Amino acid sequence: MHVVGAILALSLALAAAAGEASTLKGQPPSGASRDDADDGAMTKKHHLIHQLRKRPRKSKSSKKGKSGKSSKGGKSSKSKSKKKQKKGGRNKKGNKRPSEGRPANKPQRPAADGPNPPAPAPANKPADDAPADEREPLAGCFSSKTYDAIDHDIEQLANDIDNDEDRSHFFGGIVRLAAHDFMDYDPDNRSDNHMGADGCIDIDHPSNDGLDTIWGPRTPLKELYDDKYPHLSVADFWQAAAQVVIRQTSIDNKLDMKKGFLWGRKDREACRGSGRRLPEATGCDEVEDVFLKRMGLDWKDAVALMGGHTLGRGDKKFSGHDGTWVKDDKEAQVFDNEYYKVMFTDSWRPRNMGRDKQDWTTGRGRGNERMMLNTDMCLVFDIEEHVKRKQPCCTRTNVRYPDGQDECIDQEAARMRCPMYNQHDSRREATVAVREMMGGSVSSKNNAPFYAHFHKAWHKATTVGQDNLHELC
Q: Which of 152, 169, 180, 453 does the annotation list as catalytic?
């Protein structure tokens, strides 16, 4: 009897175990819905996060990022990583990972890349499809180490560019990309489509011409993101990329905005109409509409942000405006207050007056074209009526080159000096701000006022309309 009972008990136990195994086989992995399961496989999102994890989680918080640190407010739950990788190891493609520390003053060139990554997604959309209008960032935390790694990687990309024109375009293009992302903010939009920094630009709009050379298929910046940082939102990556460019190009790397960087922006799948919200290069009405009325900034903020034009150049193939704002392409790789100084020291005259791409230029056009837009010149000079009436003027008259030629070059422009704003004009605030950004005079080498005001204005612009942003962890 005892033997029979034991055999019967064993049979019942085996049958129960088989039934339980059969039940578990059809269940999805933990954290996934039943619809997501296919023979127990992970969803695309879970698989992506699993592949990108570089080191095991050490924190017990439930909201953990790729750095292994927890975000604020997370509750603890235990999680272990199956594989450990050391710094300087190799990624999934066999490429050696660079150090995650801050870039050295003279960074080493990166080793040759491995096989080309798959073709990236269109420039105005995140890599992953999302069911909603806004896509939550995959990262649980944007760490300080990740920020430094982006700094390091972008510096290496810049070091691999072998000529000044292309390098200035690279630096200026990244800052322009980030700025065009936040300048489409409109809190009064009836559809509640406020936009702002959301990782989305209307790449086909003329205002964004040329940005596909910075963020498009097979561009170094896009490939860097796809290969190493897809766990971040595109919006956060763009803003971080612009900030590290500004640090790298500022005098003695003094404008380091890492301390105030906030993350947690959500990517938008589509941003139809965002290009129409960007300022056109027609005059200060556009500056007022975008920066003051919609973004809630003041004239000092707007003037500081316009100082970003010290980097990069205009290209007639893209914007129709050709040349650098400052002396040349080498100077256009330095983030300083030279942009403001040349408004006063150089003789600016209209170019293409009465045409669609009217702007301003200076010099004799020997070696390097120079340019200023109406939106630049109007910060100091009251040019609105001159532009409307197609009446040329020059910002500095009766100044001659050593050979006797008038620096205004254009004889008609040389007969009339461009007026400045009177004391009762509200735009006089912009002129006062320009003088302040110069450090007090055109001969001053003091960039501190510009750097301080730019930092404040940049923080306002990149966080306007954003909720639930977090400090680096």
A: 180
